[in-house]
Every structure is written in C-alpha cells, then in structure tokens.
Amino acid sequence: MSLEGRNAVVTGGGSGIGRACATVLAERGAAVAVWDLDREGAEETVATIRDAGGKGLVVHADCAAAAAVAEAADRTRAELGPVTILVNNAGITKYKAFVDLTEEEWDETIRIDLKGPFLVTKALVAGMLDVGWGRIVNISSSSAQSGSPNMAHYVAAKGGVIGFTKALATEFAACGITVNNVPPGFVDTPLMRRNVPDPAATAARMPMQRAGRAEDVAYAVAYLTSEEAAYVTGHTLSVNGGRVFG
Ligand code: NAD
C-alpha cells in the first residue's frame, strides 16, 4: 500500500490519532502536512517523520477558521504541490451533562468537529477534482453510532460528520475521489486521558479488554487512503475493539 508521490494533509496531526495517521502515511511514502493549532505538537510529529526519512510540513492553523484554512491550503500547495489525501481528524471533546451544556459549548463543538471538516474539505477538494484522484477520511466517533451520555454536542457533531461523509461520497463517486469515515472507539490519547476519570476501568469494559492504540486507527486510515481502496466509498470503518452496533 504505497503512498509514494502523494501529498497528504492531516488535521490535528500534532497529537494522538492525528499524529499516528501522519506518521503512518509518511512511512508509506506520502509527504504529510500536519495542520494543528498546537504548533509544538505539530513540530514534534514532523520531527518524527523527518527522523524516519520521510517528508513533513508543519502548518500552524485553526482548522475551523475559514481564513486560516485558506492560508494553510495555499501554503501546503506551495510547499508540497497538489494535495490528494485529506484526513479530517482535528476535534475536541468535553463531557458535559445536557442540562448544564451551554449554547457556547454547543456552538464551539459544532464549529470545530463539524464545520472544521467542511472548511478544510472545501479548501482542498477542488485540487483533487483537478487531478481526478482523491482520498478523504473523516474521523468520527463510536459515540455517534451508539449515542452516549454527557456528549450530546459531540455526538451531534460526529453524527453530522458521518452524514457529511455519505453525502460527499455520492457526490464525488464518479470523480475518482473516495470519502469514508473511521469512528474510533476508546483510544488511548491525550484527549481521552483528559476526559475519562478511570481509563483502565473503561478499557476493561471493551470486548478486547483494552483501549485502542492511535496506530490501530491510523492503519485503517492508511488503507482507506490507498489505491487498493479505490472501490470503497461512503463506508464506515469502525475501529473499536469489537463493539457491535445494531
Ligand atoms: P487529541 O486531543 O490527542 O488530538 C487532537 C488534536 O487536534 C490536537 O493536537 C489539537 O491541538 C488539534 N486540534 C483541536 N482543535 C483544532 C483546531 N480547531 N484546529 C487545528 N487543530 C486542532 O485527540 P485524539 O484523541 O487524538 O482525537 C482525534 C480525533 O479522534 C478527534 O476528532 C476525536 O473526536 C476523535 N475520536 C477520538 C477518540 C479517542 O478515544 N481518543 C474516540 C472517538 C473519536
């Protein structure tokens, strides 16, 4: 599954799942632009990629702000060339009981987790249409498949990401561009450690009795970005250690 000669953008690539995706895509030969609000995190990811002999680019950007996204897209194209792989991974989560959830918290989660993928995809898909080849992978969440308490804002945003994926998959199916989504289950990342009071107990409740590793998600993403996945689009590839949803 070589990605030699391809240029990729991974949003939120400065930590957790995004970092693993950026690293695995680079290992397979892609040049990877790591877009993140956290400049230091993005620099660490790109340093790892370069140390392993790969090509990476740090792009400090708020992926949910239109002007910053346009600037990031211009810079990435200028430095790497046409971008044909996009992983919409940047996201936030904060547990909050619905009765306490404020309008501001709702809006902020929808802005980053749902509007962000819209803006970044808008900025990059025209280039994929020009080339006639593209791979878009949206990171959603198993909580949007099952529902989850204290996460109405997040589940609504990630449910939107799943719908957005299906809509674009049909719209671009005849254009050489696939659009899929990967809902992770419980994955050991800084985000999870910030949110979950007892990660070991939560991990033990998973069918595989362990938390996922960021790499578990990255390998699924790498498949969906490959040439071999050309006939797979609009698909939900769950990476959750065996949780099954009806
Ligand atoms: P993380 O907090 O470790 O990493 C997220 C990265 O996104 C950070 O580097 C952060 O700076 C960046 N980011 C956040 N908002 C941004 C913005 N507006 N612009 C640019 N960068 C921004 O989180 P993670 O656990 O690796 O999560 C990655 C994705 O996976 C998220 O979309 C999350 O919702 C999803 N997810 C994670 C889990 C899990 O168990 N960890 C489960 C389901 C879904």
TrEMBL record:
Coiled coil: none annotated. It is an enzyme of class 1 (oxidoreductase). Keywords: Oxidoreductase. It holds the Pfam family adh_short_C2. Its EC number is 1.1.1.-. GO terms for molecular function: oxidoreductase activity. Residues 6-185 form the Ketoreductase domain. Gene3D superfamilies: NAD(P)-binding Rossmann-like Domain. InterPro entries: KR_dom, NAD(P)-bd_dom_sf, Sc_DH/Rdtase_CS, SDR, SDR_fam. One of its GO terms (biological process) is monocarboxylic acid metabolic process. The keyword rRNA processing does not apply. Belongs to the short-chain dehydrogenases/reductases (SDR) family. This is 2-hydroxycyclohexanecarboxyl-CoA dehydrogenase. It comes from Prauserella sediminis. The lineage of its organism: Bacteria, Bacillati, Actinomycetota, Actinomycetes, Pseudonocardiales.
